[in-house]
């Protein structure tokens, strides 16, 4: 087998390994194929040209792989592929001093069985187990928890 074909097989293997590191997360066909092509190219160098050229192929492949990884890290490739989002949400807590059992309010969204209710001017997450309540319906607070309230329809 010609040296050019062996070099191309090794380069294809390195390219697939780089794709595995930077594009496809986890162990995919690119990683497995990259390993097989790289190892196969080195094996063909040993088989076709002997130990001296096989050792040269092995060392140069390892050196080229390290150089490619270093250059990839320095070129901020990770930053271009990384998801840049922040979670700015916060958990709304129920004011224990403003909402009490027995308070009355109105639903803002349909409670199916969870939705939004307005009690004492505050918009909160309301839950109504066992019932579906349409929006703009009067409700009464049954229980108050730290992050939500249990309500029931006002007429029951």
From TrEMBL:
InterPro entries with a match to the protein in the record: Membrane_assoc_protease, NA-bd_OB-fold, NfeD-like_C, NfeD_membrane
Source species of the chain: Carboxylicivirga mesophila
Domain of life: Bacteria
Localization (cell): Membrane
Major localisation: membrane
Transmembrane stretches, start-end: 6-24, 29-46, 52-73
Entry protein name: NfeD-like C-terminal domain-containing protein
Residues annotated as domain NfeD-like C-terminal: 102-153
Keywords of the record: Membrane, Transmembrane, Transmembrane helix
A Pfam family annotated for this UniProt entry: NfeD
Membrane topology: Multi-pass membrane protein
PANTHER family, per database record: INNER MEMBRANE PROTEIN YBBJ
Domain NfeD integral membrane: 4-73
């Amino acid at each position: 087998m010609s040296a050019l074909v062996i070099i191309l097989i090794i380069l294809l293997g390195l390219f697939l390994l780089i794709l595995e590191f930077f594009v496809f997360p986890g162990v995919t066909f690119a990683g497995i194929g990259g390993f097989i092509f790289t190892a196969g190219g080195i094996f063909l160098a040993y088989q076709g040209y002997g130990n001296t050229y096989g050792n040269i192929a092995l060392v140069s492949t390892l050196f080229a792989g390290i150089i490619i990884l270093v250059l990839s890290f320095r070129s901020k490739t990770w930053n271009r592929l990384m998801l840049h989002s922040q979670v700015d949400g916060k958990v709304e807590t129920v004011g224990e001093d403003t909402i009490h059992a027995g308070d009355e309010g109105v639903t803002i969204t349909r409670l199916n069985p969870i939705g939004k209710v307005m009690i004492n001017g505050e918009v909160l997450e309301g839950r109504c187990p066992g019932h579906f309540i349409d929006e703009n319906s009067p409700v009464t607070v049954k229980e108050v928890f730290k992050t939500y309230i249990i309500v029931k329809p006002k007429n029951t």
